[in-house]
Design goal:
The protein is an alpha/beta fold and 368 residues long. The protein has two domains: 169 residues, Quinone Oxidoreductase, Chain A, domain 1; 147 residues, NAD(P)-binding Rossmann-like Domain (Rossmann fold). It has ten helices and 19 strands. It binds beta-D-glucopyranose and zinc ion (ZN). Zinc ion binds next to helix 3.
C-alpha cells in the first residue's frame, strides 16, 4: 500500500512510503473497522510537520504517515462492531488515549499528559494511505447525503468542540444569550466557525486580511449570512463602534499577535476561544494593565481548545448537515484544491506551502 510520509524533524522530507495492508484482526476484541480511504484533507499542521516544526513518527518507525482529516468507506468489520457496516461512509478521530483519567473516560481530547498520540501528527500513522484500520470507538459515521462534505468532518469537530467548551464554561453566568460573534481568520476553521455561530443565530463578523472583492472566503462567509471584513475594509474598531463589543470571539488566524489583540475587543461577560496552534517562540508587547483591568472588571473568559473526540465529530457532522439544509451548496465551496491521488504528494505540499489555498485535499480513491 502506498502512503504519503515524512521523517520529522527532518525538513522537506515528504515522500511516498510503503505500508502493509492492515487487517481487522489487528484490533482487539473483534472491534476492528477496516476503511478504504477516499479523501483526506490537509492543512497547516501537515505543512509544519513537513517543515520539521512539529510531529513525530510512531516508536520504532523512521517515518510518519501524514493525514489527520479522514473520509472513507467501511470495507470490513469485526464481529463485535455495531456502529457501522460495510459500505458506510466514515471519518475517524485523531487522538488516541494515553493513561490519564481523561483518557480513561473517553476524553483523550483533553488528556492531562504532556505526551499525546495523534494519527498523522504525533506518534501514530495517519490516513494518507489506501486503507486503515481502527477501533470502532474512533469511527464516526457520515450520512450518505453528506458524503461530499465528509472530508470536513475533522475540522468541523475542532470548531464544534471550541464552541461547546465556551458554552459549557459560560454556564458560570447562569444566563448567556450571545448576540454578536466575531470570527478572526477565514481559513477552513474560521469559515466553519462562521457557519456554526450563524446556525446559533448570532450576528457574525468574520475578519481576515484579504480584501472582499473576488475573494471566495468572503463569498462563503457572506453566503452563511455573516459580514466579511477584509483588512482594506471595516476595521474591528469600526465594527465595535457600530454593533458593540462581541459576546464571543473565535480566534483562528494562526497568529498569536491577533490572539492577544482579540482580548482588547471582547464584551462584558464574553468568551474568547483561542484555537490557533502557533509554533516558534515569538514575543510581543501587549497593553497589559488595560487588558487585565478590563478582564477582571468585565468577568471575561478565555478558553484554549484543540482536537475533538467522537462526540465533537458527531456535533460537527450535525452542524455540517444543518448548514447544508440552511445554505445549500455553500460549504462545498470550501473544498477548493483537489489533488489527484497519493502520487501527487509533491503538488499537495507545494500548494500547502504556497499558503494561498483555502482547502487542499487528496482524492485518494473512488468508492466501490
Ligand atoms: C488537528 C487537531 C490536533 C492539532 C494539534 C490540528 O491540526 O486538527 O486534531 O489536535 O492539530 O496537533
Ligand atoms: Zn487539520
Amino acid at each position: 500500500m502506498k502512503a504519503i510520509a515524512v521523517r520529522p524533524p527532518q525538513k522537506d522530507s515528504v515522500h511516498l512510503a510503503e505500508l502493509p495492508m492492515p487487517s481487522v484482526d489487528e484490533i482487539p476484541n473483534n472491534r476492528g473497522v477496516l476503511v478504504k480511504v477516499l479523501k483526506v484533507g490537509v492543512d497547516a499542521t501537515d505543512r509544519e510537520i513537513n517543515e520539521g516544526l512539529y510531529g513525530a513518527p510512531p516508536e520504532g518507525c523512521n517515518f510518519l504517515v501524514l493525514g489527520h482529516e479522514s473520509f472513507g468507506q467501511v470495507v470490513e468489520v469485526g464481529s463485535a462492531v455495531r456502529k457501522v457496516r460495510p459500505g458506510d461512509y466514515v471519518s475517524c478521530t485523531v487522538r488516541r488515549p494515553g493513561k490519564s483519567i481523561f483518557d480513561r473516560i473517553g476524553r483523550n481530547d483533553i488528556t492531562s499528559e504532556e505526551t499525546y498520540y495523534e494519527r498523522g501528527i504525533n506518534l501514530r500513522h495517519g490516513y494518507l494511505t489506501e486503507y486503515f484500520v481502527d477501533d470502532e470507538e474512533y469511527i464516526v459515521r457520515i450520512p450518505k447525503g453528506l458524503k461530499h462534505l465528509g472530508v470536513l468532518a475533522e475540522p468541523a469537530s475542532v470548531v464544534a468542540k471550541g464552541i461547546e467548551q465556551a458554552t459549557l464554561a459560560q454556564q458560570r453566568l447562569q444566563v448567556w444569550h450571545p448576540g454578536v460573534g466575531f470570527v478572526l481568520g477565514s481559513g477552513q476553521i474560521g469559515l466553519l466557525a462562521t457557519m456554526m455561530l450563524r446556525l446559533q443565530g448570532l450576528d457574525v463578523y468574520t475578519f481576515a486580511r484579504a480584501p472582499k472583492e473576488g475573494n471566495i472566503k468572503a463569498e462563503i462567509a457572506q453566503a452563511y449570512g455573516a459580514t466579511y471584513c477584509g483588512a482594506d475594509d471595516r476595521s474591528i474598531e469600526e465594527v465595535v463602534s457600530d454593533v458593540g463589543r462581541p459576546d464571543i470571539i473565535f480566534e483562528a488566524t494562526g497568529s498569536s499577535r491577533i490572539a492577544f489583540q482579540a482580548m482588547e475587543y471582547l464584551g462584558l461577560n464574553g468568551a474568547l476561544i483561542w484555537s490557533s496552534v502557533t509554533g516558534g517562540d515569538n514575543t510581543l508587547e501587549v497593553p497589559g494593565n488595560r487588558i487585565n483591568l478590563e478582564w477582571v472588571l468585565g468577568n471575561k473568559l478565555l478558553v484554549g481548545t484543540v482536537n475533538g473526540n467522537w462526540q465533537h465529530f458527531e456535533q460537527g457532522i450535525a452542524d455540517l448537515s444543518l448548514a447544508e439544509h440552511t445554505w445549500p451548496g455553500v460549504t462545498e465551496r470550501i473544498l477548493t484544491h483537489p489533488i489527484n491521488g497519493l502520487d501527487n504528494y509533491k503538488q499537495m505540499m507545494d500548494l500547502l506551502a504556497d499558503g494561498q489555498c483555502l482547502k487542499v485535499f487528496v482524492d485518494v480513491a473512488d468508492e466501490g
